[in-house]
Each structure stands twice: as C-alpha cells, then as structure tokens.
C-alpha cells in the first residue's frame, strides 16, 4: 500500500498562545551531540540567511578573516619627485565585546503568549577559538554542563548559577547520562595546556546535586601506544565504562573501584571501541577481518553492568558497521555501509536477546543519518531522533518522519517549507511527536505537538520570544534537552574571542518566569 501523503505546514502562519503544557511531567528527550553542526556566531545577516537557505546541508559557520597584507609592487620611476611626508599609521580598532541580552531585557520584550525565557551569559575567560560544550545533564531542578575547565549547574526555573567547580585541565569526554542519584564521571586532560601528546586520561567523579568532587584516578595505559588521546564513556546502573584504543574497562561510580575489563571477542580481530549507557550497558566492537572494509563487520554486546557478563551479542551484516545508538531500551541504532556510510544506511531495532527485529530504510525522503551528525565521535546519542510509545521519529533537518517500531511502517511525516531544522524531542501517545523548530536570524523558533493530521493541525506549546531569535539561531545544531515542559539549548561550542562572545545557554518554558 503506498505511503499516505505527508502533511505540509507553514511555520510563519499566525499562532494562538496555548496556556500551560499538559505534557510537562513526562521526562525529557535525548540531548543532541557532536560534529558537523556548529554554534559559531553570525558574521552578517546576509551570510546567515545564505546558510539557512541551504537547509540541512550546512551545519557549521566559518568566521571571515581580515584581509591579509598586500604585496608591494615595483613601478617604473618617471624621474625625481618631491619628498613626501611619511605615511601615518593606520588607526587600530579595538574589538568590542558583543552585547548579550539579559534575562530581564528578553522578558521585557516578550509579547502576550510568548514563552517565559532565561539566558545564561557566562563570562568565564576562555582561550581563543571554539570551545566545545559537552552533554547536558538534568539533575533535580538544575541543568549541568561542562565547558573547558569549568562544570556549572544552572537552576531550571530562572537560569541562575547554583554551583560551579574548576578543573585543573580542560574536559575531553563526558557520558550522556549520570547515575540515577545524580553522580557522573567526566574525563579531562592530563595537562592544562593544549599542546601535543596531552592525554585524555584523568577521571573525576562529581556529585551533580551539590557540585562536590569525589574520587579522582588516572586512566592507566594499556601498552597499545596512543590509547588515551580519544576515549569514549557511558554510565549504566552505577557503573562507569570507558573505552580507548581496543580496550574497555568498568569502574564503580561511587568509589572508583575497578570492576572488570570488557574483553576482546575473537582476539586480534574484534576489539571494543565505544560504549553506550542508560537503561543498558552496550559495548560496540569493530571486527577488522580484512583490509578490505567490505569484508568487515561490527558487533554489539549487552554487558551486565555489575558483573561484566555478556547477556547477548548482535553482529551486523558483512560489509556493514554500527553507526549510532538511537535508543538503548528498546535497542535501536543506525547501521551503515562500511564503504559508503554517508549515503547507504538503515535503522535497525533489535528484539529479545539481540535478534534483529525491524529494519527501516528512510533514505527515499532525503533524511540524513542522525540529522547529518553520524560519522565519527561517540555512538551515543544520535541527534535528531526519538523513540517511544512503540514509534521512532527521524528528523533533525527540515523534515520529520514517524515509523511504527514493530512493523517498520511509515505513519506520517512533515516537511518545513522554510528549511528550518525540525528536531523531535519525544514520541508522544497517539502517533504524535513533540518537536522543536529552530530559529532564523530574525525569527524565533517554537515547540509544538504534531500528529498525523493535515497542515496546520500542530499545537503550539511554546512560542519563543522574538527578542531571543539571534541568540537562538547561534545555537543552531547544538545540544538540546527537554524536561517538564521546558526546552534547554546550547551551542555545540562557544568562541573564546571577546568580540565574538555568545550566550552559554537558553531556555523556554510555559507561563511567567
């Protein structure tokens, strides 16, 4: 049977404010993640509009450099000339710090029906260049995030900084989720400088409820060479798992006790290289059987986080590898052709004991794997996706499609005719989806509920104020969290240059601040 037609809608049409949010108590969706998306400042409105016009094809902004010095050119002399005064030195302009509006300024400009909004302008001194913002953690009534050498918690109700702690060197890895009681282990560099051979090997436990540091350990070398420059980590059931250079080890979050090593499978061929956490502890291994990638495959194992016992194994098809984890419960991930991983990919949902359940091929509607954020970096999370209520939502660029997770059947889809990013926050009951729609340089985003109805049937839950459009647009492609009816977003990174300062965090919620 042919797919039903996709409803189309125009985000710019007049919208009525919706009092309250009946979906405020159902948790939060996955925060987004890494790579190709950027949060660099807007250089000029014309450049920004050009970037928006290309839709899902551009996710990073490049600063325009100053004109370089001109090369002197010798000219033929026409004879003696009168002496000239020495040239005056050109005036040197001092870069001015860009104004970041305050929460008070933003809310003073709100119109009736606009969402209550707060903004964080963190004035912590940063090195020049882009500085990565790490995973968003919602703990109690705060949202916590690491940036450079600082970890800070901000109150969800008003964005006020509740606590912060400084680290001796920059953060280089964080797990997607903390323990249920709010503890996390992050990894930072061995040295404070950004020079070569600066290993990512210092493990630090932090209680995110209080901001108090716990145990600290240095990740031991394995003898395999450069094995602690790139590490991957995850937390599940009080266990912190960390993978690097063909080795994975598990530690107890509470006290740092080493619990077990996660072994190779088929020694010499399959080695663990990434981990995913949450309701399950999953370990990905690449199986390098041959130099020809079309002969290789990936393996996914569920590990008991307390004992290290392997509960099940799943093997991808030969010539295919595991891409990114969309969900750990149920287990849903992307798989990609090892030779052409950009264009040839699928979504796979596993049944009991790691057996293949459903395979979905969404490529016919121009969807990109993890909203174009799929190759390289951690396997968790997969940006622009959501799983729940027996459905999976794929989106993140200018369209969204919802599928039945059991049958793989396409149920409905929408496409934004303004080429704004659509990011599913959560799958709702009744084949519906909660969706965040990104801002443009001059128009704010919004958060709405959409089901399988026709155009214009979306229910706007949060109408973001126009006074934050510029800051919201700068956070395009960054990290995103949803908790109790509130949207929290940040850039993927911020600039350390004073004249290119950006807001640290932005949040929208129903009702007055």
From TrEMBL:
Name the UniProt key words of this record, in alphabetical order: Membrane, Transmembrane, Transmembrane helix
Pfam families to which the protein is assigned, alphabetical? PQQ_2
Question: Membrane-spanning residues where?
Answer: 42-62
Bias class Pro residues marks the residues at 1-20
What residues does the Pyrrolo-quinoline quinone repeat domain cover? 139-260
What InterPro entries does this protein's entry cite?
PQQ_rpt_dom, Quinoprotein_ADH-like_sf, WD40/YVTN_repeat-like_dom_sf
Q: Where is this region: Disordered?
A: 1-36, 69-101
Annotated protein name in UniProt: PQQ-binding-like beta-propeller repeat protein
State the organism's lineage.
Bacteria, Bacillati, Actinomycetota, Actinomycetes, Kitasatosporales
